[in-house]
Amino acid sequence: MATRGRLFQAPKGHFFLFGPRGTGKSTWIRDAFPDAVRIDLLAPEVLRTYLARPERLRELITAKPRPTVVVIDEVQRAPALLDVVHEQIETAGKRAPRFVLTGSSARKLRRSGVNLLAGRAVRTALHPFMAAELGEGFDLARALDVGLVPLVHEAADPTRTLQSYLSLYVREEVQAEGLVRDLGGFARFLEGISFSHASPLNLANVARECDVSRKTAEGYLGVLEDLLLAFQVPVFTRRAKRQMQAHPKLFWFDVGVFRSARPAGPLDRPDEIAGPALEGLVAQHLRAWIDYSANDCTLSYWRTKSGNEVDFVVYGRAGFWAIEVKNGRRVHAGDLSGLRAFREDYPMARVALLYRGDDRLVVDGVPCLPLGDFLAAVRPGSPLPT
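RE: above sequence
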């Protein structure tokens, strides 16, 4: 995988770096800490060694001449190692090496009763590429087609790599770790839940479509979220003046992975996939902006019982934004109805409409921005462009 300038900045001290497979955690680690002592638990012989004797980590550190950084890749595969890490931090204090712990799943850590070092390590995340990281190499049409997962984006054959991505997860994470009993039911769920991307999640309907119980569907959704493949966006209800929608929205972590999971055929209209894909691309950028900025902002959406909706609300000390996404090359008056209603309730919010056109407009006092320009200008540490 090629190395690019990522906008993720490591915190000081010990930290966890979580992210789905293929987002470039190992590549970033090698670039940031080239001289670190590295334990790669994806290597079968290394995994067997540390599963059998986690205390070998203590012996490894003792044998080294004061290592400054110790990296443990995919630490969830040997959760007992965290007990040794915790012991090293407690007993050695400032003389302990800096621990950098990567993982593509938090499920096994949580199920094993691990306390994630009792707050002694910051939890961070690495996301797919942001447009700003790719610079002139960012292509909106390509991003919407194959996504921005580095493993896929940098592949010689991105389409084929993307097609095998979910199969790799099912085989190496779900099946190998025994996360579900019925792989056929889980495969149907992956297909069924893809129709909920960028939409309010009704899990009872998904369960019915997949021919599984609601409880089973809840379990499958938990697996999907624990593997960092999907996330939910809640409804913005702070000081609500209207009756609000109750269901959160669901998003796949990357638009390309969504498209690979979503079945398509002659009966599917192009906009049925293109619209949610576009919204998902914005969602993953906003999520990365929040995490990389390390601010207190939250990501939500706004939808009233009467049907007024704004796709994204970003709220926190860093600012207050309402953003609507439209998959069209022209702005129509009706496109602004949700933002106008939101602005009535929250006049202090900065609002913007993102669309597929080429010109920056101001319609009814609302900035209307070309979506590609907006994404390219989203940079951690700076306000969102409006």
